[in-house]
Please model this.
Amino acid sequence: MSTREATAGAGPQRTRPGAPAPASRPPARRRRVPLRTRLRRDWQLLAMVAPGFVILLVFSYVPILGNVIAFQDYNPYLGANPLEAFLQSEWIGFGQFQLLFEDPAFWHAFRNTLAITAFQLVFFFPLPILLAIVLHSLLSSRLRGFIQTVVYLPHFFSWVLVVSFFVAMLGGAGLLAQTMREAGMEPWNVMTNPDTFIILVTVEAIWKDVGWGTIVFLAALSTIDQNLYEAAAADGAGRWRRLWHITLPGLRPVIVLLLILRLGDALSVGFEQFLLQRDAVGRQAAEVLDTFVYHFSIATGNYGYGAAAGLFKAAIGLILILAANKVAHLLGERGIYSRS
Amino acid sequence: MTATVARKPPGARPRRPAWEEPPSPLGQGAKAVLLGLLVLSVLFPLWVILVTSLSSRETIARAGGLVVIPRGIDVSAYETIFAGGAVTRALWISTLVTVIGTALALTVTVLAAYGLSRPRSLGYRWLLAYFLLPFLIYPPLVPKYLVVTGLGLKDTIWALVLPPAISVFNLVVVRGFFQGIPQELLDSARIDGASDFRTLTRIVLPLARAVIAVVGLFYAVTYWNVWFDALLFIDRNDMYPIQRVLQSYLLAGQAPTTSGAASGATMPPTEAIKMAVVVLTVAPIVAVYPFIQRHFVKGVLIGAIKG
Model:
């Protein structure tokens, strides 16, 4: 298995046909088998796919098409159910988008999102790589296994749980404040301080996922040819030069892939994480695009407006991931789809 | 073989390759501090929360809140919680959602993964594209909300169970494993007259236990952790899953309510009850996870490679 193949997440896009085969030129061997024969042969496979097909249709594809309410003045009270209301609602073209782009709260959320993404790209993204290299260098596999077990664990905690942990440790009534008060100091409460909020959410994200993030790098590290290290050492390369000239180039395809995925997701920063803490630190610091969509649609009943904000975010996200992928191709990397 | 780590069979004493320079004490020290702090940052809060949940009123009062050093064990917080009330009900709802959801999601995912594992089958390319596309485009929040409420699922557990019942990532993992099964095995089953359903249940599934355990853990954790969907779709507080209750006690500052039986001075301290709720939310994850953890690196990577 080569390093490139070991990249988690590379799978789906690679097998995904860039564009499904046009019906006009099916593979030669298919044409000879009549549809009825193939149906009789494959009906069980089709039946197996059906439940998943329906669930995706109802809960993914219909909502994606439902984005069109962004072009409506959607009024939930016009019908007995959302479908009727949708049919009755007035089409207003780009009116919602116009309002959106004039809304300072929207641009504030947009700026917050980008700032947090940039901050986490610098202070969070490299950490799993570093941790993977350190873990990989441990000689005792038992110790390594123990550390891995412990640091993967928080990945499985919900955001409610993670934030609760942080409140219990660092909050106003938490262990840190308690200890400081006993020591006669003025306790500081990082959980409600908007100025340091960006650091807090990054630390929380690191705590939750730094361990989990090492998995894919550890897999890539184990595929690097060990003879390279020995040869380099024989040629007089020290520890740091080997790290720079062998380890990091070996990890490069994985790093690029994850960077692309992260950039494509630049407008999503842990939604639940921010929603949970928004009231504690206030909107000024904690409003990101996802929480904006939630608060200005479902929480207030202004569905069309929220849908417009959501659609805008999805469109930018798609452009970002395609652009990042293009850049990766230009740099000679494989990116997420090899066929585009 | 010069592999530095991991390749050694367990038990054999790992050795540093001869060409590698001996580690500097500074580097070793930095490494130990880094890893030690990281492990401690996970284990220490767990410890404090567990100890506080098991502490008596006096111990908590003396510590001034959270307890680091235990002084005796007092299970009254758990007794109060299990005497009935919001937490018991929420635990029950969450268990129900997790069990039904995981069973359903595993069934749907395994069936779809098998149905999509044969490249020459009818409609293969279209179906595959159909199943993988949602990986790139998330269902948007507002229309999804309207669909779920429009179907009348609001305030039912189905609003929590159905939408996550197929995850593209998990589908890719399982399908990748299925495609790695030797073709001869499947061919011989077919020659013996086994249908696809039979091949799946008799031959493929017994081979796929590890990957199913891993994907089952992923689904179970998703369902146990469901919070935002409950915020959207569950308005009745007697239908709240545990994460919603945890949020209202720990983050929204609502005082834990218990059934009327225990009140006044006999009530265990709020701090202990809060921490007991945290412990009960963490416990299922911590209990199941170590058994499956050794499989999942392999499981996830197999899926990613073959997918």
